[in-house]
Every structure is written in C-alpha cells, then in structure tokens.
Specification:
11 helices, 4-stranded antiparallel beta sheet, alpha+beta
C-alpha cells in the first residue's frame, strides 16, 4: 500500500513537473472529446425536442376510426384495459353530436360539437374536474370566447328535433366547470359526460330520455352499440401496434404513424453516425495516448529502473503511466466540458431563436457528463497498458549502469 501511494505521489509530481507535455496531452484529449460532446448534445437536444413535441401533443397519439362501425361496451372495455391504451371513450353519430348553447352575455346562439369526456382524457390534461352528470360541461376556448362566459357560470343548452310531424326543442341548464386550453382545439366544442352525449342521440332519434323528462318513443332494452370512438395510445411508441391490432379486427383507422416513424428513424440514424464518429475518435486518441506514454516510459527508463532498484515491484511500476493517463483523462474531460458548455450557450442563445425554437437545441443531462468521464477514463487506462507493459519490462540493472 505504501508503494502504491508513493507511485501516485511520484507520478503526479512528474506529471506536473513536465506541465508542457502534460498540457499537450490534455489539449489533445479535449480536442477529441469536446466536439463529440457537442455533436451528442445537438443529437440529444434535437431528437428530444422532436419527441417531446410528439408526446406532449395528444393528437399525435390519437387513433381515429375511418367511417362508421359497431362497437359495444365489451369491445370498448377490452381496449380500455390494455396497457398500451391511455384513454378510450365512445362517440355517437356526428349528426347527433351537436348542441346549441346560449349565454346571458352573448346575443348569438352557438352551435357546438359534443364530445364525451372523462377523467384521464389527454385532451383535457390541464383540467382538474370533469363532467360527472348531465348539467356540467367543459368548453373549448373558442366556444367560451364566443359565448363570453367564464368558469362556474351557467349557460342554456338546447336540442331540436322533428318528431311526429312537429318540431320540438328541449332546454337544459349547464354549468361551465372548466375551459380547455387554446391548444386543445380551435373548434367550438362542448366536452360533456357520456350520458349527455347518449341522451342527445336518443332525443334526436325520437326516443325518450327518462332522466331528463324528454318525451319520445320508449327505449328498447338492447345492448348499446356505438358507431365510433376516441382512442389515445399511452405512448407514441404504442401507436403502430395499436393500429395493426385494430386493422386485424377489421377496423380502418388513421394515425400519425409516418411522422412518428420519421422521428424514430432520425434518432436511430443520428445515433449510428454519432457512435461511428465517437469510435473513430476514441480509437485514434487511444493509439495516440498509448504511443505517447510508450515514448514517455522510454524517456524515463533510467528513473523507472531506479525505482525498481530501490524495491518497487513490476506491478507498481506499471501503475506509473496508468495514473498519469488517469490525470490526463480527468483534466481533459474537465476542459472538454468547459468548451462544450460554452458552445452549448452560443448554440442555444444564437441559433435556436433563428430556427424559431422555444426549447434548447443543444443540451446534455448530468448522467451524460458522468458517462463521458467514465468512458474517457476507461479508454485512457486501456491506452496506458501499452506504456505499462513497456515499464514492466525495465530491469533494475539498467539503473546500476548510471550510478
């Protein structure tokens, strides 16, 4: 142990004494490592930004059915229980999913699209409450502005139909429990409970809605069949599998599969390019550092042989160039990090605004810096084996000739 601590101390004193040569080693390492860190920072920043934009926008995870089908509650529940499905809720016929809204603040009557919603709806991720019965609604921002209403205000909702040769209209007081973000939709949409959506279809079909005292023909006690649904995958990586599974069941759907595949392809291609460059740089630096350490050992043969002469073992002598390579790795990594941080600031401050990006174009996480340090030390130690093998072959007798 004493010999090892002596080798650490002697190798550092020798390393600092020859500061010019040590500085060249540090600059050589940072000149290889810093560009790789900048390249990986750009790759990670660009791809992460693109993926976050895809993930944060629920529209990219939505799978829309094409045309009309027949889906019962069992079918809806089967997909709701899948791990790759975040949210699914039935939809009624488009012609039946409209409602007229009127507020005391606005003169005009607004025709709005009805969409059923419930807790966990990705479109309303910012909402804290959801419609639980007939008399609650979440309005899109467009509808709220046209009606000039705010949260907690009441509006009048009405539905009209032609029944038994007469035109009828029913009214329903509804409380606005929330207003959706402008990014959710630009259409006039009223997010309501599934019960109200079904009641609207029943009324327009001439059937009675007992809970709301709306008259009409008696409702047959049959299993409920829905013509469509609103489905969101849990992740953009689940979209393609869900699309394939739905199409196997004969459900024609459309989704942003092509856009998601493009981003994933960019990620893979940039990763391949980065690792090719990283491997070439690592191999080149390994040979360069190994050759330098080999030459350094040859230059210090007399000094190292004297250490052998005074009792240092071959295994301890081997550690002399290894420790010096570790010093180079740590200091070179520190310099590369400083260079990277400077360029990261310049890229994000000057280049990102020109590309109309509101996010960082280049950035790395803390673990990326630590991984870079670990890999740099491993490569440096590997390269030092060349010099270590040369040092191990030095005999104590070589030192006697100079005494």
């Amino acid at each position: 142990m004493a010999q090892l601590s002596s080798i650490v101390r002697l190798s550092f004193r020798d390393y600092s004494h020859e500061w010019r040569m040590s500085g060249c080693f540090i600059l050589a390492l940072s000149s290889v490592l810093a560009p790789m860190m900048i390249l990986f920072g750009l790759k990670f920043g660009i791809v992460t930004t693109m993926l976050e934009q895809l993930i944060e926008n629920p529209i990219n995870r939505e799978i829309k059915p094409i045309g009309s089908g027949r889906y019962d509650d069992a079918w809806i529940d089967r997909f709701r229980n899948r791990a790759d499905v975040e949210f699914i809720i039935p939809k009624t016929r488009a012609l039946a999913a409209t409602i007229q809204l009127k507020s005391d603040s606005a003169k005009r009557i607004l025709s709005a699209e009805l969409l059923a919603t419930a807790k966990g709806d990705p479109l309303l991720a910012g909402s804290t409450s959801f419609p639980k019965h007939y008399h609650q609604v979440i309005l899109s921002q467009s509808a709220a502005k046209k009606l000039k209403v705010k949260r907690a205000e009441e509006i009048d909702a009405s539905l009209a139909r032609q029944f038994q040769g007469k035109r009828e209209r029913v009214h329903l007081p509804i409380k606005v429990i929330d207003i959706a973000d402008a990014t959710v939709t630009s259409r006039n949409v009223a997010f309501v409970s599934l019960d109200l959506l079904i009641a609207s279809e029943q009324f327009k079909d001439g059937r009675a809605v007992t809970d709301l005292s709306w008259g009409g023909d008696p409702v047959a006690a049959a299993e409920r069949i829905y013509p469509s649904f609103r489905l969101y995958a849990r992740s953009i990586y689940d979209v393609e599998k869900l699309v394939n599974d739905l199409e196997k069941e004969g459900v024609k759907v459309k989704a942003n599969v092509a856009e998601i595949a493009t981003v994933q392809s960019i990620d893979k291609n940039l990763s391949v390019i980065f690792w090719i460059i990283a491997c070439v740089g690592a191999i080149g630096f390994s040979f360069s550092l190994g050759a330098s350490l080999w030459a350094n050992v040859d230059r210090k043969r007399k000094e190292l042989s004297v250490l052998r002469l005074v009792g240092f073992k071959s295994g301890r002598i081997v550690m002399f160039p290894v420790f010096q390579s570790i010093y180079t790795a740590i200091l070179g990594w520190l310099l590369a990090v400083l260079v990277y941080l400077g360029f990261e600031y310049l890229i994000n401050f000057f280049l990102a605004p020109r590309l109309n990006l509101d996010r960082a174009l280049c950035f790395l996480l803390t673990e990326h810096f630590l991984w870079a340090l670990g890999l740099t030390i491993v490569i440096a130690i590997t390269a030092a084996i060349l010099g270590g093998a040369r040092a191990a072959g030095i005999e104590p007798s070589e030192g006697l000739r100079d005494i």
